[in-house]
Amino acid sequence: MDENQRLAALRWAEDKAQQLFDAIEAKGLIAPGRSESAVEKDIYALAARDFGVEKHWHKRIVRAGINTLTIAADNPPVIDILADDMVFIDLGPVFDSWEADVGRTYVLGDAPEKHRLNADLPRHFEKLRDHFDTHPDITGAELFTEAERLAEADGWLWGGQIAGHLVGEFPHYRIPGDKDLYRISPHNPSRMRDPDASRHRKYWILEVHLVNPDRSWGGFYERLLLPEPN
Q1: For position 97, what pLDDT does the model report?
Q2: Residue 209's closest CA among 142, 150, 153, 159?
Q3: Number of domains forming the structure of the chain
Q4: Which of 101, 103, 104, 217 is nearest to 159 (CA)?
Q5: Which pLDDT does position 62 carry in this prediction?
Q6: Domain for residue 133, yes or no?
Q7: Residue 69 within a domain
Q8: In a domain, 153, yes or no
Q9: Cα 29–25–223 angle (5° rounding)?
């Protein structure tokens, strides 16, 4: 498979994952009084029934309230969604052996600062994508630093230990080489556009995790780090 085919497959998988998000919203799965685990189980069933998803390359993540401060590797106690919560969902479905990784945040209630943070998530993604596009030799560490800078400039804290990672054919984590070089983090001094250890082009997921200054809630957003298709 050539690079154009790989790119088309990744875009197709992400589009399917975004359709799954649309279905989650249409069915009203995110609602006050529901537990995070109940929402997660409903997403699993919906993905299998309506989208034919049999594998997820990472655990399905539903985080509400104080749990929106946690990262993917954490396993915080399950809590119920409250009427004024921030809630984020992080999905990793596999479609025909191609990984998707998408995240969205939802605001329940009318709190202006929560809505401001939620609006900043895709805006920061676009700014970071523009920064990546205009810096052809950028390293993973440098893009992570820019993500932290943008968060601080808008009055937020950066919530993650990384700002993204590689994605590709399932399972991408078996790609040989130093795993730090496959993350957007302070520990990656390599150029993001360098090929991977198999000499393939790297395709990146860009994550934005913003947290309010008193560390009581946050939001999360992620997508492929690619230009918008023509």
Answers
A1: 83
A2: 159
A3: 1
A4: 217
A5: 96
A6: yes
A7: yes
A8: yes
A9: 115
Structure tokens, 221: 């957003």
Q: What's the CA gap between 60 and 156, in Å, rounded?
A: 26
Q: Which residue has the tokens 């969902």?
A: 89
Query: For residues 206 and 192, is the Cβ–Cβ distance under 8 A?
Result: no
Candidates 167, 126, 166; CA nearest to 147 is 126
Q: What is the Cα–Cα distance from 199 to 10, expressed in whole angstroms? A: 18
pLDDT in tens, 210-229: 999 999 999 999 999 998 76
- Distance in angstroms (rounded) separating the CA atoms of residues 97 and 118: 31
Is 219 within the bounds of a domain? Answer: yes
DSSP, res 227: P
Q: In this structure, are residues 179 and 142 in contact, taking their beta carbons and an 8 Å threshold? A: no
Q: Look up the domain containing 194 and give its range.
A: 3-224
CATH code of the domain in which 38 resides: 3.90.230.10
pTM of model > 0.90: yes
Candidates 45, 170, 164, 167; CA nearest to 95 is 170
